[in-house]
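hey
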């Protein structure tokens, strides 16, 4: 399969789980009342909601690769409520932040409900997360963030170097603001749990790539070995939207690379001061995301780039892994050179103004995605809510989503990739010490 995540590469979260036998591909033409394209968090959640609400309807869910093994399995596992803002403390800035926070809170609550309802074992831990900085350059930003949290009655704590190093087992960070909502989780296990929760009236076809869609009264969905005619269609392919001609001028994909170590051994656990599970996001956009998991592994993601073909060659991957190792050793110099056990890429989806896609793009065809790095919660929430919308129902959450700004217009390629690459390079320069 080209242009899509490989099924059997090094994604650590997938590799440490038992293998799953994928369902067969669709190999004959069908007519359907409901079709959902994309079986990540968004598509799975939409399928579960629709199937539970319409028990007599068949819902066809198709994915180009193995279900749940795209970005949904490959992310860093932060189910977020708060996000770091750049210190916009005007009334409009605070109101916009509150709107985003409320949506993330709904999303976190939904994921928690799903985890409980379907008994999903995904290493759920409400341990909070640190927005941390290794220099004093971000002191104002972090102080403003703490003031913002206080003004909205969101619990946040400021940590100085000494206390922080005791919590994280490294002297690397100078300061941090800790927030307490959301959860840390094993993303591939959450995705697997949602696949297992699909009701019997969902027909899941895997390794069935949609090549083209003609939007009409009956949408014509062309796959490699089959054509589907669908009365209602939900497109939930996130970073791959543009490949299907959807929201090309509003949302664009970015390629991220991450690594997971083997479990630390007893002497390494001692060297990291036997700390509990923790999670760090950088105070700089381009700084490293780092986790220490309950089973004593470290995960790092410290690179992001524009991509034309949605994958990385071997030589580039080697450079990224070397960069991950450097980032880990900068924080934990006792780690050996072969500590990284798994490295992988994933595709995320971004807009210019941090806005999301939640739209009826043609009669009886809806698209969701573009979560700007926050798609564990929002993917599940948008999936649930687009199912309500497709059934003609209105909800308070739909109103909340629709009050948010729409993604701004983006220039066409190749100007878009040039512009984004330049912006990333500038941000990267500011975050050299945080990588
Ligand atoms: C490295 C990394 C770290 C991240 N960290 C976080 C984090 O900590 N917290 C967070 O909230 N979010 C994070 N994200 C973002 C998050 O993973 C995504 O927003 C989320 O997975 C989106 O879910 P989705 O179902 O919309 O898309 P995906 O999980 O991408 O699912 C889309 C599915 O569509 C399928 N598909 C694509 N094209 C076609 C086609 N033509 N035909 C059929 N099927 C198709 C794909 O195979 C895929 O399975 C991260 C992303 C990456 C890559």
């Amino acid at each position: 399969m080209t242009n899509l995540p490989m099924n059997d590469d090094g994604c650590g979260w997938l590799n440490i789980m038992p293998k799953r036998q994928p369902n067969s591909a669709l190999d004959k033409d069908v007519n359907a009342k409901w079709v959902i394209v994309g079986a990540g968090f968004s598509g799975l959640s939409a399928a579960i909601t629709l199937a539970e609400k319409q028990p007599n309807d068949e819902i066809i869910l198709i994915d180009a690769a193995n279900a749940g093994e795209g970005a949904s399995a490959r992310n860093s596992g932060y189910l977020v409520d708060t996000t770091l803002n750049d210190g916009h403390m005007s009334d409009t800035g605070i109101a916009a932040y509150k709107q985003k926070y409320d949506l993330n809170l709904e999303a976190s609550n939904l994921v928690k409900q799903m985890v409980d309802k379907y008994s999903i074992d995904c290493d759920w831990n409400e341990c909070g997360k640190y927005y941390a900085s290794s220099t004093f350059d971000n002191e104002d930003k972090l102080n403003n963030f703490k003031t913002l949290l206080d003004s909205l009655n969101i619990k946040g704590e400021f940590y100085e170097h000494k206390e922080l190093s005791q919590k994280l087992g490294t002297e690397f960070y100078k300061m941090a603001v800790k927030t307490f909502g959301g959860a840390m989780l094993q993303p591939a296990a959450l995705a697997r749990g949602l696949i297992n929760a699909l009701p019997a009236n969902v027909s899941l076809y895997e390794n069935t790539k949609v090549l083209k869609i003609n939007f009409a009264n009956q949408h014509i969905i062309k796959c490699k070995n089959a054509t589907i005619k669908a009365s209602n269609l939900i497109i939930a392919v996130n970073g791959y939207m543009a490949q299907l001609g959807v929201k090309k001028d509003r949302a664009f994909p970015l390629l991220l690379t991450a690594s997971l170590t083997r479990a630390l051994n007893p002497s390494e656990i001692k060297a990291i001061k036997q700390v509990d599970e923790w999670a760090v996001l950088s105070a700089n956009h381009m700084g490293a995301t780092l986790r220490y998991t309950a089973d004593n592994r470290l995960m790092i993601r410290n690179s992001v780039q524009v991509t034309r073909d949605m994958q990385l060659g071997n030589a580039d991957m080697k450079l990224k892994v070397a960069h991950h190792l450097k980032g880990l050793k900068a924080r934990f110099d006792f780690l050996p050179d072969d500590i990284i056990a798994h490295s992988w890429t994933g595709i995320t989806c971004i807009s210019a103004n941090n806005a999301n896609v939640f739209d009826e793009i043609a009669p009886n065809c809806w698209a969701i995605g573009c979560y700007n790095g926050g798609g564990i919660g929002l993917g599940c929430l948008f999936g649930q809510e687009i199912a309500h919308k497709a059934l003609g129902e209105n909800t308070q959450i739909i109103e909340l989503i629709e009050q948010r700004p729409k993604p701004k217009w983006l220039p066409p390629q190749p100007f878009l990739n040039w512009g984004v690459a330049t912006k990333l390079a500038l941000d990267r320069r500011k975050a050299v010490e945080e990588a």
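The longest strand covers residues 340-350. The chain has twelve helices and 18 strands.
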